[in-house]
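Input chain follows. Return structure tokens only.
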Amino acid sequence: MSLYLEHFGLDEAPFRITPHTDFFFDGADRGATLEALLYATLHEEGIVKVVGEVGSGKTMLCRVLMERLPPHVETVYLANPSFTRDEILYAVAEELRIEFARERVTGALNALHERLIASHGQGRRTVILIDEAHAMPEETLEQVRLLSNVETNRHKLLQIVLFGQPELDEVLGLDSMRQLKDRITHNFRMRPLSAAEVATYLSFRMRAAGYRGPDVFTGKAGALIARASGGLTRRINILADKALLAAFSEGTHGVTEKHVRAAVADAEFERRRRAPHALAAAAVAALAGLVLGAGGYWLLVPAPATPAAAAPAAAAPAAARAAPVRALRPPRPSPYLQPEQIERLQGYGAGGEPLLASRLAATVEKLNTAPDGHYTLELYISDRSDPARVEGFLERARDDGRVPLEDLYVVPLKVGDRYRIWSFLGDYADRDAAAAAASALPRRYRESFPLRPRTFADLRRQL
């Protein structure tokens, strides 16, 4: 039992990171997403997909969905992403307590089909909830598609819901996954909480745990938790729990900025970020859920060369096309980037790609000169750092013409002996200006990318 429970008048710990459905927060679109999931699960005949960053609350949503489904719906919950093609079929059959000859895959499939037909005849529905779907092998996801084909002449016999990190969108963007992607009828995205929503969330969790007094977390304390957590509920819970313990150790009943700063300093993800030898690893840990989504994948997949797209590259001087980023220099001394940060940025070569070389140079200058408090909009982070692939992204953005190419920035993050690509859009004076710019972007951009406002100070800390 947490030490501070009696001190704060709590019945139980309010910020456990394990999913507890009594603590389901229906703000930040969570409640609306749950209602839409319930409707889609009960009335639609396709695959449903829920995507969210690491720690955004996907598993909690899945557990609440299972609780809220009516009694005539039989659920199968699969949380093992390492299933092989055959094993996932066996797992579904075993969860439904179907007897079959394990050495024959066709026997298991036939037994499953017969069971589902019988259940349908009794007015029952069967739903498979697959967690960590982004980590499943392609052949296993293909088996999921085949399971979705189990049907009568008029009705689908299985409803499938996929829960995964944004990497799932990238996997579904592959040509080999086209048939599975075409069967997805509803897409839901778990966005991070805003600062105002974090304050509401903190109050909600405290009261759900039995607290009955005035708000414990001051406005500034809540704002600091929002910034440090990135709006991810798992991190909010970790920081809030540590901050409560810090306040308890001082014998006070209010959580202030000082207590949150102590919590942030104690949090593992913050320590990794500060360690000079582990900066790149921290960037991956903090941003692992932000891999490019399916809607944005169209920008990264190289398109067949067209005369219009190929002409600018062909016309570029050979010296410019061959110039690596490491040959670039900051335009003037600046207090923002440290020499070792510039060295890491310039260690990624443009591979002779002219647009990439240009945007990398502009990125170095922007990181050198943009004030700490200015904001930019996060587009994606990806392991696909091949210069030709990134050049394809830039060419598509240029040819699409919906945003100025000069507003796109490409940040190479060094991870060991390789790089990840982190892309951003624009430079805005404050968070409100960044949010307004995100709202004004074309719909395809708003649906394809998270567009999370990030300060340039935050970007520089990740380098």
